[in-house]
Amino acid sequence: MELPVLFEERMRRMLPPEEYEQFLKSYEREKYHALRVNTLKIRRKEFLERGLFDLEPVPWCENGFYYGENERPGKHPFHEAGLYYIQEPSAMSAAALADVQPGEYVLDLCAAPGGKSTQLASALQGQGLLVANEIHPARAKILSQNIERMGVRNALVTNETPQSLALRFPAFFDRIIVDAPCSGEGMFFKEEQALIHWSPENVQMCASRQDEILEEAAKMLAPGGTLVYSTCTFAPEEDEGSMVRFLNAHPEFSVKKVPSPEGFRPGHPEWVDGPEELKATFRLWPHVLKGEGHYAAVLQKAGELPEHASFGKVPKADRAVCRAWEEFAAVNLRETPEGIPVLFGEQLYLLPVAIPLKGLKVLRPGLHVGTWKKNRLEPAHALAMVLRAQEAARSLELHPNPDESWDMVSAWLRGESVPADGENGWTLALAEGYPIGWGKVSGGQLKNHYPKGLRR
Ligand SMILES: C[S@@+](CC[C@H](N)C(=O)[O-])C[C@H]1O[C@@H](n2cnc3c(N)ncnc32)[C@H](O)[C@@H]1O
């Protein structure tokens, strides 16, 4: 791989000579593949007991595992069932450092395609609130699909600028992740675009954009809250540099000392004329650990976390719709998910927390439970994806014998209907016990309602 000369010169100045050679060599090796088990759907232990792939733990992420280069987890039906998320291993560091607890209010400000958001959602375990925001509309759609596939019930997916989000959510969140757009020097390996667009001017542009994003994040963090900043670049201006500019402008913030995971190296204040406390930020180097490289910092805002702020009431879906939802749940579910029913056009959602949505660009205001059409409620795919098999009144196993082929599941994922002799009505289709969508039994068939856009 041919690296930009100015990049090489800068890296040579940054690293001691033997380390610089090792750093260069890291570009020649095979890239690492990893997945993260989605604990909203399956426990780590159960996933390992299934022995699906040849796995090795990622040291800094409890549910992260490297898999062999010949494995194809993206093709397995369990990927569609949302049992795991394929993610670059060093990218698992920021959300792990955020140490999110169930019930907190969390913002992922630069969230698409959703690696960190889905990791934060697992940590929340369906309690509290996740706002997953992405500025680019097309990327926000992909984020929203991943939130759905992973069975996240308490997320609001927005497509806003950090500035307008900050107007709606002043001092609102317990934790914020800023996984900033950056010059992507850690991505040279896999994305030619990062290599083509690299220039010292672009590094400067990214650094100023990071300052702007962090400024808005600061406004949205509650006193006593935690801000995690990360990039996938090695440029000091965008890493320790962004932190020093931010800390100078915000004396209410300091670097939080958190235990250093295996393989992480300290940040370098001397590269940016910054304070010693930057040594408690983290450098993930591709020649030191098994990953493409990252920078991460955990910052703390002074003060005590207050009670969660309330916006008061939000307008609920009208009575007929709420009643239809209750009736649907009574007939088809054994447990009814919680949330405030809100109608967006024909789409019914359960909003996890009373947040006024007017004026915000929202793609997914909570859990999508159904479509209200012709005075009937048809269940949404997202609802199937948050349920456990036992939470539906009826389910049908499409892969009853683990030793047999996955033909019936594959047919289902292509949109085909399958034979079924159960009771008529909405039925959860299962792949070895894990929901993959809704079907409707009638006339000895499970009619396929797998969304057209997802069919293989
Ligand atoms: C490093 S990526 C995020 C990756 C994501 N956190 C994940 O783990 O899957 C940075 C994101 O920031 C978005 N972005 C670009 N410009 C932005 C801006 N001015 N404000 C906020 N986000 C921006 C990009 O579209 C991109 O999706």
Automatic annotation (TrEMBL):
Protein name as it appears in the record: RsmF rRNA methyltransferase first C-terminal domain-containing protein
Source taxon at top rank: Bacteria
InterPro entries named among the record's database cross-references: Methyltr_RsmF_N, MeTrfase_RsmB-F_NOP2_cat, MeTrfase_RsmB-F_NOP2_dom, Nol1_Nop2_Fmu_2, RCMT, RsmF_methylt_CI, SAM-dependent_MTases_sf
Alphabetically ordered keywords of this record: Cytoplasm, Methyltransferase, RNA-binding, S-adenosyl-L-methionine, Transferase
Cited PANTHER family: 28S RRNA (CYTOSINE(4447)-C(5))-METHYLTRANSFERASE-RELATED, NOP2 YEAST -RELATED NOL1/NOP2/FMU SUN DOMAIN-CONTAINING
Binding sites annotated in the UniProt record for S-adenosyl-L-methionine: 110-116, 134, 179
Species of provenance: Hominifimenecus microfluidus
Annotated ranges, domain SAM-dependent MTase RsmB/NOP-type: 7-302
Catalytic residue positions: 232
Record GO biological process: RNA methylation
PROSITE patterns: SAM_MT_RSMB_NOP
A Gene Ontology molecular function term of the record: RNA methyltransferase activity
Family: Belongs to the class I-like SAM-binding methyltransferase superfamily. RsmB/NOP family.
Pfam families (alphabetical): Methyltr_RsmB-F (PF01189), Methyltr_RsmF_N (PF17125), Methyltranf_PUA (PF13636), RsmF_methylt_CI (PF17126)
